[in-house]
Amino acid sequence: MKSSKTRCLGILTAGGDSPGLNAVVRAITKVAMGEFGMRVLGIQDGFRGLVENRILTLDDATVSGVLTRGGTILGTSRDKPHSMPMGGRLMDMTDAAVENAQKHQMDCLVCLGGGGTAKNAFRLAQRRGINVMTLPKTIDNDVFGTDVSFGFDTAVSIATEAIDRLHTTATSHHRLIVCEVMGHRAGWLALHAGIAGGADVILLPELPYDLEKIAEFLLERRRHGKRFSIIAVAEGALSRREADALAAAKAAKDKETKETKETKETKETKETKETKEKDKDKDREKDKDRRKTRDLDRPDKGEGLGELSTEADDVDAFRADLTLNVSRLHDETMAYHVVQEPMASRLARHLQALTGVEARVTSLGHVQRGGVPTAFDRTLSTMMGARAAELLAEGQYNVMVAYRNGVCVPVPLAEVVGRKKLVPADHHLIHCARQVGTCFGD
Ligand code: F6P
After folding, report:
1. Cα–chain center distance at 104
2. 19 touches ligand 1 (CB under 6 Å)
């Protein structure tokens, strides 16, 4: 057995599931145990399982036969330790998470997830000094610092196959088909699947589109005898008007927040602030004492036990909210009364109206995240998992295992957290797609 600085590690999978998660869990477990003699623990349902102490031992038998299985054998959730719904309230459960990691003598908490997961893991490391490591999982491929995340290749294959199938029916009926793929902020999936599937129009969140330009492009195709068209659209794609309204609403919100903060600050004297801080410290101490006596093994016992979370750092939720308002605005100006109509169907409706060509919508949804991982994702996951175990043995903590130029390397989490890898407007794939006649609606 080789020597190792890590004796025990806990693995959790957090955020949306992704093909390849089980392959990573399998590889870490096999290498960490088999080569370095580490104890490997599996935490159920992401950070929630850590808070609720739902932790089991992983071994060869547990990870046997999971290489090709989709989803995650550990279960997942989108819960964050510092702001977790407990008994109907959002609570800061950081203490419980850290206490349980310590109780099981974990030298490192290994978190498989996307940008949000990396942020939550890093927060635990920074605030409470526990060792963490992350591995980049997401079908969106938007994790910063890695060339690719596991799960992306599988999702691209699924979306490409769907576009292939849509082609035959669109051709037969001479229709427009809008195919919505996942990706709220990043358009990698739409871009890759759109190119691979030969979509005529590709719409990305990063490149606001102009409806009239798309309609004109579609009509031009018809004039050239092509009576069908496929439009691959990322779920977060926005029209130019929506993007402008979103930017204006965000600027107004930022201004309001800044002004409220400034007014509040001038009102509060330094002395009042200090008194408040002292009171808060006392409350925290009291909470800590109460927490020491609670039963953490039972789920949903958290009400009134942690701190009430006040943090609202969910930019995506803010954006989703704004997008919804913007879409209402958009439809009002077009004299429609539509609430929460899915973006792809709104797009299809407008394009049908502008071109006079019958349109249909297919939203691929969670199909893109399901089923067996591709060969590439299985290989990538195995490489990343094995490398993670080696890095743990070396005692390299607070890093993400990234895939760069064909090899897996550690990247400090500080360089990754809070950043998203979006499609740059001048990306070579956009250029290449334009060269073969693809329209981006811009
Ligand atoms: O984070 C990956 C992702 O699949 C996104 O592409 C998508 O917008 C989102 O998750 C869907 O989340 P949920 O599974 O919670 O509906």
Report:
1. 28
2. no
- How would you list the strands of the sheet with 307-308, edge to edge? 84-86, 89-92, 307-308
Full strand arrangement of the beta sheet holding 55-58: 55-58, 39-43, 8-13, 108-113, 132-136, 399-404, 407-412
- Position 344, amino acid: A
Q: In which residue are the tokens 């992306």 written?
A: 152
Q: How confident is the model at residue 310 (pLDDT cuts 50, 70, 90)?
A: very low
**Overall average pLDDT of the 245-269 stretch:** 84
Q: What is the DSSP string of 53-68?
A: T-EEEE-TTTTTT-TT
Spatial distance between the Cα atoms of 442 and 255, rounded to a whole number of angstroms: 29
Structure tokens at 180: 């919505």
d(CA 113, CA 163): 27
This prediction's pTM: 0.84
Dist CA 237 CA 346 (whole Å)? 12
Probe target for ligand 1 pocket from 184, 189, 314, 323, with the most ligand atoms within 8 Å of CB: 184
